[in-house]
What we know:
Helix content is 50%, strand content 11%. By secondary structure, the chain is α+β, with helices and mostly antiparallel strands. Helix 2 links the parallel strand 2 and strand 3 (84-88).
Amino acid sequence: MIPFHQKKKINEQTIKKIEMSNIFFRIYLVLFAFITQSLFAQDYQGSLSDGTLKVNSTEIPVKIYATTEAQDLSGFADKKIDNNVLVILNESNFEPNYYNYSVQTLARFKENQYQFFDKNFKLIQTGATQDNITTFKYAVKSNKPIAASDKVELETSFKIWDPSKGIQLGPITLHFYSLMFIFAFGLGYVLMAKIFKIDNVNIKYLEPLFTWTLIGTILGARLGHVIFYQPELFKEDFWSVFLPISTKNGLKFTGFSGLASHGATIALIFTTLYYSFKIIKKNPFWVYDRIGIVVALGGAFVRMGNFFNSEIVGKPVDPSSPFAIFFPQQSSEYGVTVPRYPTQLFEAIGYVCLFVLLWILYTRTNKKYQQGWLFGLFFIILWAIRFFVEFLKEPQGDEFIQFGGLNTGQILSIPFMIAGFVIMIYSKKFKITEAENGKPE
């Protein structure tokens, strides 16, 4: 006969097992739903999307078109389409340097019985000028002309992501992508200061870490993108590789667009080695463990910046999918503008979850004293997230590295994941005490 206290212990263990089983079962269901959605919701066909234009109480089915290419937009104006059509216009369609061409394009739309509306679907009845051309947001062609007094709304089965480029501060525009980088480094600085405080490490070592991390991230990410995805820039637009400008078709400020996380990681490894040996004089894995926590959160902000820029978009998805998002501002390099997976958000969510996990392990366990363990885990999960999300992404530029159905991003992620496993195994050799952790004072 089993004593009561042993029965109680067995019951508690059984309850815990059941609870764990329920947790794993829920995780399995979420993964199953996601994978099923991913496999069976990619059957979108054609270059036009379906929507409904509500004019007062009347519902008018329309075909939706958008492009960032001025030439494609001009060609579409003369295209014969039997259905009602709604064209979403972009700022990139009305570049100041090509004002006359933009006016001619709008004139061709008008000749083909299109009406123009602003972002609030208010009818524009005046001609285009340099002052008002950017207010032209929609061009609509319907069987029955729309009156200025009509109430107009657009309804779609998918979400339309068409944000402004940034915050206007007088003559300067603070782009959301740049703002996300500021948040990433700003919050990273605050978090690292807290980490140094927890570890009892002198705060004077934080400034050089921040400087070298900033240099490694920007320079490495930019060079990585050009080397892996756009090597032609070295010949065609050399200065754009290192400076936030473009010299093609005249000098133009572009900001740092085109950044590769693989390149940033490689550069950070080398800049951190210098910082570890020459400045703070600690085992590099001690520094990597703590940088990994900050980078996980920073990566989420960077992907949010990509989302604001409508870049690194996913593959076409069924318009009825809950994941379907229409990006009118997406580059033509990704193909036709149709509802797609918001892969930027998938990665961002994954990175936030990784940050939470690493922070809990750092603050509530002794794993921070096993140098390299947190960094190895960071490498495995971070690049696993990147690897699996790549299945839903459109290729970025020319894919120079492909093998076995895997793209460049996936192939570059595999060595990092393997390195993570190796680092975790060897981290047992780099254990330190709490007293050693706080050195140097």
